[in-house]
Amino acid sequence: MAVEAQSKPMITRQSSWNTLRQVFAPIGQILVFIVGSAVILGLIVVLLGLVLSRVMEQPNMLNGVFLLLPIVIVDGLVLGFLYATIALGYTMVYGVLEFINFAHGEIFMVGAFVAGGLALFLASNGLLAAIPPLLFVLIAVLLGMAVSGTLAMSIERVAYRPLRNAPRLVPLISAIGVSLVLQDLVRLIAGPRRFYLAFPDLGLNQRYQLFQVARAGGGNLNVTIDSKSLILIVTALVMLIGLNYLVNATKLGKAIRAVAQDRPTASLMGINVNLIIALTFLIGGALGGAAGVLFGIRYSTINPYVGFLYGLKAFTAAVLGGIGNITGAMVGGIVLGFLEAFVAGYLSLFTRGHFGGADYASMAAFLILVGILIFRPSGLLGEAVAQKV
Amino acid sequence: MKRFASALMLLVLMASLLAACGQTTASPSATTGAASPAPESPMASASPAESPMASASPAASAAASPSTSETATAGAAAELPNVEGLDLGTIKIASQTPLSGPQSALGTGIRNGSELGVEQMSKKVGMEVQFVPFDDQATEDIGASNANQIAADQDILCVAGHLNSGVALAALPTYKNASLLMISPANTNVRITDDFGANPAYRVVGRDDVQPAVAAKHAFETLKVKNVYILHDKTAYGQGVADFFRQLAEKAGVQVLGFEGTDEKSVFDPVLNPILAAQPEAVFWGGIYSEGGPLLKQMREKGIEARFLGTDGLDSSELSRLAGEAAVGVNFITIAGPVGQYPAASQFAKDYEAKFSAATPSFAAQGYDAAALCVLAIAKAAEKANARPTRQQVLEAMKEIGPYDGVTGTVTFNEKGDRVPATYFVIEVKTGDPAQWDQANQIINKIDISPEGQ
Amino acid sequence: MSSTGRTSPQEPDESTSGRLEALLGQGYTPYIIVTLYVLLTSLWLLAFPFSTIAFLVFLSSLMAIYYFPVSSWLKLVLGVIVLGVVMPIVGNQNQGFLDVVTQSAIFVALALGLNIVVGFAGLLDLGYVAFFALGAYLWGIFSTGQALNIFPGAEATFPLGGGWFFVFLVLGVIVAAIAGVLLGLPVLRLRGDYLAIVTLGFGEVIRLLANNLDKPVNITGGAQGITSIGQAPMFFQPVVAAAGFQPSQGAEYRMYMYVLAILIVLLTVMVARRLNQSRIGRAWTAIREDETAAIAMGVPLVRMKLLAFAAGASFAGAMGVLFAAKQLFISPPTFDLVRSISILAMVILGGMGSIPGVILGATVITLLNLRILPDFAAQLNDWRRAGLPIPAQFDPVSYQRLLFGLVLILMTIFRPEGILPERRRRFELHQEAAEGEQMAQDAKNLVHPDIGMKS
To answer: Would you call A311 an interface residue with chain B, using a CB distance cutoff of 8 Å?
Structure first.
């Protein structure tokens, strides 16, 4: 099970056109999935709205459907990219080791806390206002990546490497242990004052109006997207391109793929397997850290336990997309984000308040996940790979 | 060797993180209690209709509600039992709250408050009391197991606990069998006293059906809100409060535009979309500040300008820290009264700050009162028995306990263990700066209500 | 298999422990030692019924009974003395210990059930707690007024009396088994981690349903949970009273729950053992080791996997009913993912597939969580009060989870095959050693390169 199951076998020299194609083709794939899920889900809710407004004799329902549609799509997109960024690191590690790194959520959380600590530190010295917001985001992301990456690498060294050859489930338990330790360590370091860490105002509060929707009772509903979300989306795409470049077009990437495919053979070919696995954790951790920083900046409140839930969602996203597949993680995250946003937005409307949308959002996401997996047992983009025995 | 090196690296990393965070420890709330609440504090002068609030003593506020007026004149110290010199052996008071896990921020607050309460009250009554905290991890079976351990330790004569009603309900049968007094600082679920009232459960907080009644009165009669969107955090507390609020809204003919729960802690966009579309006049939040703050901030960022209402879960300066300027204009209900106006409360905030170097979270003051009442009940029982009291005697003594002037105002119980006619304050947040929380916030309404919420 | 492996550590202690065993195995020595061990630890605990150390040493005597090469009637007698005589007497004085043992027993049964799915059949299930929740809510709903919300107007029938408890114990088994099959049917095509995520999703769905089904019809009580759940019937009360005992209601019920839990655990151990040794068990092993080969050998794959799911689930269903009757209160947070994971940790730490290992794993983790870590934290707290320099920010009571995490990491690193690994697996892992090996033995090698040859 390779990182990129569908990538063609590498020949010694590769034309730059090929490289470009491999690096940028996933963007097209993602666009297709974004538009596809938005259109399909949008059509479903409109149809449901049409049917239900007849059945329940609620003529206003269709109006509500259309009013909500644009904001739900925008939010689903942002949420989807959030899941996607976390899932990238998850899938990277899984692709190489076939190991569910349950501590990835905590790596993500550490990244968020690093950024929060940095922001508070700068704010207390009055420096935050002096730095341009985008520069701060850049510094925070780089710092978060460095800290989380190193942390992930150290964890691999301490808690996972001794278990490299143990039965598959054993490192899982070790990872759970790491995750408990990290949660409480961060809590200990953050102290009671910063258990809930609130980011200071970064000056990134612009909202860009996309368009307006007319309300039934007069007035308009402005559909906007904020600059923090834009930063999140752009960074996620940059991360995807960078990762694709790294895995598909560099020597390191080739080594990573070789280790993923067959560890003993790779080591016979002169690849330092331990080093490559450590680097994989470094990269995966750095991606998780970057996701954490972006999360903190976008949603502004974090706590030491925030990683668990998002780690779980990201894992779901990675499986949905086909675990081990980089583009798949992205696609899975986006589809999951859309699903949650749509269920949360519409369920209450369609059931006239009998079933709360937010109550059932994650449940619906799981049910749909099960559905997809039943029809595509290796995820949306996963290839039907023969099971290694 | 390498393993040690990487472990060392990890430590260094953590230390640098600590250093980064540590730089900012000179947090503004260090000054919280320093400004003593003089009668001419801005809040008093700005407070509108409610004249009694101008004078900053609990006695004055108690005088406003007739039922407690006769006790209000008696000073707190005068009626305290004194058991100094009695040989009582080891006496312990247990507290049980989540001290680890996601809910540990609140749980630790209660634990710390209780520790202060035990410390100060036991000095006043001249009795040596050990304080033993337990961590229930917000999990029912751990809570029940701890309860068994507590019941087995005959030195423990009273429990100040729980944060989660679920854990309390799982532990209460054990306490009941052991005749062990429990005074709850935070359990609002009606079943706590409906099922175990006074035997052995008491509580210093309002019931789930009381706070919503106050909130509804305020929202529908004073603010004249025409429609409302209700959100809750899917906990027993938040959902309980929200459910009652919805019933009251429907009874009052107020349109409920939506009723949703979310166990999200940070990302509220999906919940907020329907609110944006529904355009309610007010949003009622059943839950606590830790989710309420971020929710409020994201709500405002999204452009929802509805009024934000909540219960005593919002009563912490942390709300201002988490929500920033978005907190301005929030109306919440509390029995404790604003810290800035009560000498006892402001003293408590000061002591808490000094001892634990942190702002007081919600329910910490209630934790103080629960633990102090524990000490008081034990001392009363010891005085009466003139010896070390049994658990049964402590329970009996609790039944006869008089009004107690605590940090959260004067506490009197009915025979069910609920606080009797409580005066609730509706407080409007006026600041986005946690340091100003105590001074700037205003009492905008005052409502007397009986324990059953009528 | 692995090219980078160290040579397997030669066991010098192997021979010493072997010699020790040979010495102990002679004549009446083991009989005397084990009897003395049980008697002394029992006396110690009876003398100090509040000492955690005495309690732990006392529990370790069960291990001694299991391991010493003595005849099975002595094992039986000593086991009955430990669990049937000494424990109740101590529990009467210290209900804390009794409760810990009861909780441990519940988790032992749960871990044994999960062991069937994960350890025997090799299917990773991360949503096991869902079946536990089904059992608990089954009794919770029908023994309280909640049932009236489903069947309005049936006041004559509901809430059911305590006498129905035993019916529901069986019903819990059946319902959970059916749920296991229903879950298994669509998802068994999935392999490995895909199966894990789907079972995880199933677990979350059940918890969310429990959390949300308080509207439109209030079935589960939602976040408020269900209170005042019906107690199991105390049919023996007249007998106890006639025998001259006057226990308090609470103490009597605690003891009853303890006895019931121990009995159910014994039953589950027997069932699990029989299953493992039967044709079915061998089929599971075959599936676990190599699915393709198992199919080729004519093992009915789907039926066997479904059977594993159903059998594992049924243990949890029964325990759920007992749990509800013991706690008298249930609510959704009890049945979250963390619970599933901790049960899995019990199975893996104890030794996947090994029944004594899983029992030990479940007991150790429950004791750690409920007794050892809290006591350790309390001890640290005492020391700090006495003036030991522990930083003020570090309140030991609140770092139990951190310690638990450390324990998990250390245990997996130093003992990846589990505390008491299954014999087959141990033979696989230590082929060189296996030839000379006779009884369960503790080879203290750390990480063996050949561990984990299976996919």
So the answer is: no
